[in-house]
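Predict structure. Chain length: 134.
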Amino acid sequence: MLHHIEIYVSNLPRTIQFWNWFLTELGYVQYQKWESGISWKHGSTYLVFVQAEERFMDISYHRCRVGLNHLAFHAISKEQVDSITAKLQERGIHILYVDKHPYAGGENYYAVYFEDPDRIKVELIAPADCYFAG
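Prediction complete.
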């Protein structure tokens, strides 16, 4: 079982604004907060976001480089995927693969894909019993 994931970010306040609403929607609760970081917890797993030091900001994140590609989260239903999609659009957050949404992962894979402020790809996936086209 995964214990936690820690991600360094370029702008902690912007990251908090982005992730707080999304993680809260999924049932996460704020777990820890300190001057240079914050975490949210769900069950025994938590996500940590830490402000990167200026000296390490010269190379920005890109998911195609070695390292993290994306974070994928379970939705509780197809309707939750749709609700989050609407909230992303209301917030002006770019949805990836919009031409194939919500079946960008294939016709039996109902999900929404988007990016956080540092362009980390995020995926929200409906439960397997909701996978159906049409």
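Summary: The radius of gyration is 15 Å.
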